[in-house]
Amino acid sequence: MDLYPFIGKKIGLFLALALLLSGCAIQAGPPSSFSANPSQSSAASEAPPYHITWTMYQNLPVPSDAEMVAYVEGKFNVDLDIWNLENNKYEALLELRLAQGEIPDLFRVRRHQDLLKYQRQGLLAEIPKDLLMKHAPNIMKAIQDYAPSYLDYGTIDGAYYGIPVVNPTNIYRIPVVYRQDWLEKLGLQTPETLEQFEEVIYAFANGDPDGNGLKDTYGLSIEGMNVVFGAFGQIVFADQLYFAEKDTGLVIGALEPEMKEALRYLRKWYKDGVIDPEFITGENKGGYKHLSHAFIEGRIGMTSMGNYYHWIQNGDYMAWSSNGQSATEENPSTATFNVKELTAKNPQAKVVFGDPFTGPGGKRGSKAYDLLMSFTAIGANAAKEPGKLAKILEVLDYVSANPDPDEYTSMHYGVQGKHWEWADSSRKDVIVLPPYNQIFGYQNQIGSNIGMTVPLPETERREQWAATLGLDTNGIYNALEISTPSLIQNAAQLIKLKNKAYISFITGEKPLEEFEDFVQAFMESGGSEVLREANEWRRKHQ
Questions:
Q1: Same fold, 16-170+371-404+445-457 and 176-318+335-367
Q2: Tens digit of pLDDT for each residue in 402-460?
Q3: CA distances from 141 to 127, 152, 166, 169, 456 (A)
Q4: Which end of the chain has the least Cβ crowding within 10 Å, N or C?
Q5: What pTM did the predictor assign?
Q6: Which residues on adjacent β-strands are paired with residue 542?
């Protein structure tokens, strides 16, 4: 899940956190006003002893003269070199630099399954636990207090190589979204069962819901299929292999026999012209990866793509905003991402969330992102310079988990009074000030939000709204949140094999009678070893 594309969030529990973590903060005032020139800092009167290369989440490049980066550089007397690796292409861009012999000092391991791979390649430094507790106390305390079961997930053979990045908002599953205006026109409700869902998508495909007199609409595309698989208890289409818990141990969901029955439905729907024939290439056609262009363009009437905050409609909840001067006020939330794009094309369009519908056995669910989102590691070369590893941890702790509300918020949103302001004296609600509240990715542009996510409790109004929708129930999570040696070696080819087989079954290229042949081929291509190692890990962590 992407956590940072959103700029109108409420920051909660700061005062409680300040008390909880008192004594751990680096004592310095927040950047309510400062010069972006680090040479004006007393700490920068001499050449910085450490040049630190840094990777982070970003949708846009961070300029070399970004003011918040300059502030951090001056404060810690370091030279930060932010690697501009676009999130959508992160691994490909990172691998290019690694192949050239470059290793980032602050090493973002976006896919948690890659931690073991990079460690085995000698790219990561061991992080002594006592050093971590001493120089990143606020990060570690947040993990200990709010996600203790993940504390040792970054260890390999008993040594610490990755700080677990646990995303508290991933308790909310991916929503199931419908075109409400299409449902209303066709006299239908959001479905509760697979049979009702079938009725809805056939109506979307055959009932001319857009009223243009053409047969150019469909029920669903590839992301919606995961809700169909969820009605049989599993998730199939994802960028990782989804494991599930059974009495016999961990299993790979795509291999389970009930998936054959789910495929039977999808195969029939594809034949009948209910599934978008472009589902093979996916719903997103480029750009921001959480946009369902098939839904936005009115091709399909149901999807399960993007997170809840990509589907906010006008007035879903009350949010603080600025009137452009000194006063603040509460106003209805405004449309975001998918809804914003959809209504720009069709102002009359409306969306509605539905529950995952139940299958024949009473199961239901939609895809949920792992709570363990990624790892933050230290590059191997950083450990070769005396004191550098400790300095990196100090900077990371300050920009990620500062217990002081003003400093924490400044590290995430920028300069107080310029980029953001508190809504009131309680210092709980953050207002992003004009014009930044209208600029996508402004945090990247000013160099804020360069740290890692910590699992502090979420009390923002946006998350309160998500909770009222029941998105914290019926999520299907991956039962294996780590990687194993065989998974590193075989995951890519196994995912490719799985996707090719499923697409062939859905389109009718292969008969369903060959499902067992697919399972056998999968196991012979490394699947059996992947399962064996996964269950060994499970037995050790029960």
A1: yes
A2: 999 999 999 999 999 999 999 888 888 899 999 999 898 999 999 999 999 999 987 77
A3: 16, 13, 13, 19, 10
A4: C
A5: 0.84
A6: none
